[in-house]
Amino acid sequence: MKRKSLNSSSFDDSSNHSHDIHAIVSPYYSSWQKSYDPEFLKKMSTKVLAKTWGKPSVFRNDRYPMFGNGLVMAEGSIWVHHRHVIAPTFSPLNLKGMASMMVDSTRKMIDKWVSQICGCSIGKLFTIKKTLEAKKLGEEIDKLLLSIIEARMKSDKRQPQQDLLGHLLQENHHDDQVDGQVKKALSMRELVDECKTFFFGGYETTALSITWTLMLLAMHEDWQNQLRDEIKEVVGNDELDVNLLAELKKMKLVMNEALRLYPPSPNVQRQAKEDIQIDHLVVPKEVTFGSML
Predict the structure, then answer these.
(1) Residues 145-156: pLDDT tens digits?
(2) 201 secondary structure, DSSP code
(3) What is the DSSP string of 223-289?
(4) DSSP 3-state assignment of 183?
(5) Shortest CA distance to 141 belongs to which of 57, 68, 206, 201?
(6) What string of DSSP letters covers 30-58?
(7) Are residues 191 and 172 in contact, defined by beta-carbon separation less than 8 angstroms?
(8) Contact assessment for residue 208 and residue 257, using Cβ atoms and an 8 Å cutoff
(9) Residue 282 above 80 pLDDT?
(10) Who's near 117: CB < 8 A, 6+ residues apart?
């Protein structure tokens, strides 16, 4: 077989590249989506009560070791209660306070990358480690997070740390009211589940978003140069100031376009808890459907 040569033009011509990866990765979902009225989802969200739809049981069983019953898996009043406790943690003021931690963490990561690239072979960097079974791994993570939370609760009584866990513990000191009913503060089990949710969910979605953004920038060198020039103009050689982020207009455009083309969570699955009728269509109980975003 004759080997096909790869020249620079093979990489430079990005105009022919299709970003419709859903049709390639999930062709059946793509074809099914075209077979139904686009107004179907609108009717489900406006005419069908949310309580008649739920998270698919297969996902709840499969992903419980990873997420527990945190915000990703919770439903109904439990979801509302958890969200009321967690939402203030992600206020703009709190996120600004955590910016310096993000910068320090990123700098350490980059330094580690540099030392690894300079000090060892490329093959060693991509060694695949043997993983434990999901259930056993989930139990070990539970123990680790439980010890971290308990230690933090003992040490943060006077001066809470201004990170994600510190804010979450602060918001969890008082009872909450949901649908006219008083809900107690999150239990230790619920706190562990929420920590797992934001550690794994937040890590994965952020990593995917950055990966796709870097890929798009690699395909469009002109935008790389524009972003570099913008950063030099706005930030200069100084340390990154979170208050300057709003002035990076082109950076925001690039990030939004990357999220539009390659969303980190591209689909949503729901399961009917009972027979649901939408116009002439009846969705039987326990039927699971997926929708591309």
Answers:
(1) 888 888 888 775
(2) I
(3) HHHHHHHHHHHHTTTSPP-GGGGGG-HHHHHHHHHHHHHS-SS-EEEEEESS-EEETTEEE-TT-EE
(4) strand
(5) 68
(6) HHHHHHS-TTHHHHHHHHS-GGGEE--HH
(7) yes
(8) no
(9) yes
(10) 125
Distance of CA 111 to CAs 104, 118, 228, 236, Å?
A: 11, 11, 20, 21
Amino acid type, 136: K
* Cα 131 to Cα 64: distance, rounded to the nearest angstrom: 17
Identify the residue whose tokens are 């978003």: 209
Which neighbouring-strand residues pair with 282? 277
Closest CA to 81 of 91, 67, 71, 72: 71
Assign 291 to helix, strand or coil: strand
Q: Tell me the DSSP string of 79-93.
A: HHHHHHHHGGGGSHH
How far is the C-alpha of 259 from the C-alpha of 262, rounded, in Å?
A: 5
Maximum average pLDDT range among 12-26, 128-142, 234-248? 234-248
Q: Using one digit for the tens of pLDDT, what is the confidence trace for 101-134?
A: 777 888 888 888 777 665 554 444 444 344 456 6
Exposure class string for 42-55: b at 16+ Cβ within 10 A, else e = eebeeeeeeeebbb
| Sequence-ordered alpha helix ranges (H) in 68-201 | 76-86, 92-97, 99-119, 122-125, 134-155, 164-171, 188-196
Q: Are 286 and 68 in contact (CB under 8 A)?
A: no
C-alpha triplet 181, 171, 265: angle, nearest 5° = 90
Report the alpha-carbon distance of residue 128 to residue 120 in Å, rounded.
16
Q: Read off the tokens for 270.
A: 């729901």
Place of tokens 């096909």: 4
Residue with tokens 């913008």: 230
Query: What mean pLDDT, rounded, does the chain reach?
Result: 76
